[in-house]
Amino acid sequence: MDNSSSTLSNLDVELLFLITKYLENGPCDLSARVLKKELVKKKVLPKRLDWEGDQHEQSFDELERKYPHILPNHLLDICTRIAPILDREIKPNVSGLSTLLGAGRQSLLRTPKDVEKLWLHILEYSARLNQRVLYPPVTCTNHNIVKVLNGRENAGPVPRSFSVSNQMYSRTQLLCCTLGHLSAVYCLLFDRTGRYVITGADDLLVKVWSAIDGRLLATLRGASAEISDIAINTENTLLAAGSIDRLIRVWCLQTATPVAILTAHTGMITGVNFCPGIVDGKRYLASTSSDGSVAIWCYSNQTPVIFNPKPIQFIERTRPGSAQMISGAFSSGGMFLAAGSADHYVRVYRLSGPAGPQRVLEVEAHTDRVDSIQWANFSLRFVSGSKDG
Questions:
Q1: Given 2.130.10.10, 2.30.30.240, 3.40.1550.10, 3.40.50.720, which CATH number is that of 185-386?
Q2: Among the four 28, 223, 323, 382, which has the fewest Cβ within 10 Å?
Q3: Mean pLDDT (the chain, rounded)
Q4: 86: Cβ–Cβ under 8 A, 6 or more apart, which residues?
């Protein structure tokens, strides 16, 4: 231990000197006296040089006289000033918190690498403890959406904050605001290219806008009542709009000219959907109505497009009272059509077959009206939404 002073650096010796000065004027003055004796005994204090360059042992009092500007609270002042300087360079989690014992982003030893965004592994998104997600460390503020979705697929639901962060909303900004309708707009749709936006409003008009700069490109007229739903076919050539006047109007998207007016319903149109595929060489447009019916219209892809004026229509009334068909959606391949109604039933129709479209399923899956249906993108499964919760 006597030669331990040879392994101490100059900073080590200075720190021991400052610690002794701090203890000497505090509640641990006895410890300071013991530490003084140890420093002298083990020859830890730096040696002094005489005028001939020879080294001599130095006492603690001599070292104090050599540095008269070092006050008893010098070490405390150094510690007090370090934190604000570090906080300006590397932000802590809690600003203004004075502590020498912090960890993580509160540590006085933190580096820029310690506060970098931490990306979790897919296994951490897939892990569950008591059927709950393992919450990430406080340094993880962003999440990889691909890993989040994979983890949700592997193990079940994840918190919404994982997939939609607060920073996402802070980056959202209004790109364009255009006043183009005289009444409320309840129908909005992008075309298949994403370059155009189609709107249908209660002013009886359907309008086509540029998604790039918001310019009005075309106004489609002809409806005599409010627009209730709009749809575009897969080829991006036809636009169908249903309205409260019980009619479905179809326009050509290339020329904005009317193609057909379809009349088969006796109630307002609640939904229109183009079949995304060609089934047995035929193309279809499906519509649902408040009269409780589902109509499937066949049309040709020739020029000009010709719609069969007599659709295959299913009148779905299982009980007295309200039997409105509210929602409908095609499967990803177009082979099946699912529809929901106000009588709590979900019905599925198959479009292929020698007899044409047929109903293949009718089930009372809810206890209230079925107002939304959506098929999975890669399988023959769909979800239905109802007001029963």
A1: 2.130.10.10
A2: 28
A3: 85
A4: 108, 110
